[in-house]
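Researcher: I need the complex structure. Ligand is glutamine. Inputs:
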Amino acid sequence: MPKFVFVTGGVVSSLGKGIAAASMGALLESRGLTVTIIKMDPYLNVDPGTMSPFQHGEVFVTEDGAETDLDLGHYERFTDSRTRRHNNFTTGQIYDSVLRKERRGEYLGKTVQVIPHITNEIQAFIHRGARTDQDDAPDVAIVEVGGTVGDIESLPFLEAIRQLSLKAGRNNSCFVHLTLVPYIPSAGELKTKPTQHSVQKLREIGISPNLLFCRADRAIPEDERDKISLFSNVPAEAVISVADVDSIYRIPRMLMEQGVDDQICDCLKLDAKQPDIAVWDDLIERLEHPQREIRVAMVGKYVDLTESYKSLSEALIHAGLHTRSKVKIDYIDSETIERDGPEGLSQFDAVLVPGGFGKRGVEGKIRAIEFARKQRIPYLGICLGMQLAVVEFARNVAGLAKANSTEFDPQSPNPVIALITEWVDADGSRQNRSEESDMGGTMRLGAQRCAIRAGTKAAQTYGPEVYERHRHRYEVNNRLKDKIVQAGLVVSSETPHESLVEMIELPESVHPWFVAVQFHPEFTSTPRHGHPLFKSYIEAAVARKESRK
Ligand code: GLN
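Model: Output:
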């Protein structure tokens, strides 16, 4: 059975619990242990798939096609473990499961209650995510409890982990509590009171933290840590100072220097080798010594919400680390391009149109793509960014008038992008989109393996095949594909059975680097390994920068 590290948060949200959990995972892996990380979200939505990016930030897609919390992205970037559907669950899923059992009569007529039925279900879900009893169970399951201690919604989760740790027995679980130690400028002091209250709240529920991670904008001096130790009943060496840093990839070292991995191994009586974090140190060295700065224009809609492009901005940073470039991303609202024109893009080393949904700003993105194509600026299109590259090419090169995606113009005479159901009917009739369609379940989701055409840029970067994750409803329309290909667009990869377009590009004779993909490569980029497509893209940006000197 795996051992458990439970991570809770106090005082306020957004302290970086996910990154703390992921960094502990990285440290434990560096000691030769296997880990998995689970996130429990206390909201009632079944998953974040249908939530607005304003509410939730990025939706991270797992290999097996689940739409999950963006913290799972951090878990995959920091550790070698791959998350699956069961690594993330919500209160909504727990209630859904309990209510189905109730309808099937599985509770044998008992009154179904939060305790024990909901709390038991949570424990069962934790064990399922941790793969307890499976042959490939990890040594350690790190379980992050979403929300903040003191929230009504979080209570069943806290009760469940308390019970689970009791049942798991001595030395099988470790509690890490993350709190805020704010600096009050007028007093010139760090304040420990909120931490004190937060730990008290946790103890009321019956959980005594083994380690306290204290977030602050500066290192917390020893006397303050001693004070926190005294009132929270946590040994002084277990009061960890987690100060703000310029890069999240510094956190594993910061935790290791304060003996976090030693203390966890000690708490769980784990026999592990000494940590080796040379790869993280190497990354920091690269981060500190870039040879140039590369400016990427990311033309999107949720530009004020960089959280909604989390994996993507990280993937660009990773590509920078592996090409010795500091990548600076300018988020450009595509509506400003509709208003002011695309010319401003010429000052950038590369242009990127990311994934997205909905009509607003689409024409601005198309103009940005046209500009990048004509000015030979390296262009990477992701998901919607590929669909719009096809639309732009269809309109402006293939001469398909008013070409569009039916997502934006259902009446388009040249629907080069459409729902499969809209273009498969032999009579050419288009089915109306059903308003009652299950918004949570109609997407192409998850990873798919596809062959790549030899001799293409895609083959140069990926090799003979690609295995990346999807999250979209619309596809390139196979009925119009030939016309676009005849006009010179290269389809470099398609799905094996339905021939759905996976990757497109322009030949090198026409454009130095113009590649767009229907999937989301950003989900598989990690700081340690980088990602072939993003690396190649940033290399092209570097070449443009050098050539303009
Ligand atoms: N809106 C498009 C679709 O559903 C693109 C989705 C995306 O970019 N993730 O197909």
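Model: Summary of the prediction. The longest helix spans residues 114-130.
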